[in-house]
Amino acid sequence: MLLFRARHFSPNDKKGYVVIRIQKVLFAVLAVIVLASSVHAVDPPPINSHLFQSGELIYTDGFDGPLNKKWWQTRTKNWEVVDGLLIGAPDYKNAAEAEKALKRDHHLGLSPVIRLDNLPPKFVVRMRVKFEGEEFQTGRPKFDIGHHINTVTFRDNGYAVKLHGGKQFLGKAPGVKLNEWLDVALEFQEGALWIEVNGKGQLIKHEQVSLEGRSELTFKTFEDTPNRIMFDSVSLWKAN
Fold first, then answer.
1. What is the CA radius of gyration of the chain?
2. Per residue in 55-100, pLDDT tens?
């Protein structure tokens, strides 16, 4: 620690004025050094993977600023960042309103849809997500690993993983409820994936585990309100 002995100078003492100026500069330099040390001391969270030994954190977000469009691709219009949450709501109140506005009877934007894009071939993603709703429905809510390739659907106290060739794996997890936060972890490479929901996971090894050339997770939910999707946080690692 730097210590400075106090001295009393008269208002016209130029030497004293120079000493005080030097002290102020030294204190400013010390503050910068301490601040820089504290910044560099914060290491990124470890990958903590079941499939991979190491990896690089390439994206993390607590949604304290604008939506990062490098990583997120909104497929419906009503998405916004509010109070540290990424929230998606339906574009229209009902099918009649949507059909009148869009002049079609399909892709009506009644379910909010969003993609986490630009996934590496090997990745680990951890997120906190909530699906609003009154009751689980067949196939909803869900997210696709790749575009309509592998699908994870949620159900009361569990989930199902359906691979693109039709093979299905069921999993139980505590506290899987609508209107409650879900802690979801997904680790992926061709031929193998680890999925974990609220701390309970399973390893799936199968030749049908593939992105089929796509690089996104696509989130969808019900078409009837209440049906918002909310994200509290997300972290993505490129695995080695």
1. 25
2. 999 999 999 999 999 999 999 999 999 999 999 999 877 777 767 7
pTM: 0.79
Q: Write the DSSP assignment of 122-175 as a string of letters.
A: SEEEEEEEEE--SS-BTTBSEEEETTTTEEEEEETTEEEEE-TTS-EEEEE-TT
* 151 within 8 A of 162, measured Cβ to Cβ: yes
Does 59 fall in a domain?
yes
Cα separation, 166 vs 150, in Å, equals 9
Sort strands 158-162 and 168-172 into parallel, antiparallel or unpaired. Answer: antiparallel
Three-state SS for 213?
A: coil
For residue 167, give the CATH number of its domain: 2.60.120.560
* 141, 234: one domain: yes
- State the residue range of the domain holding 64: 55-239
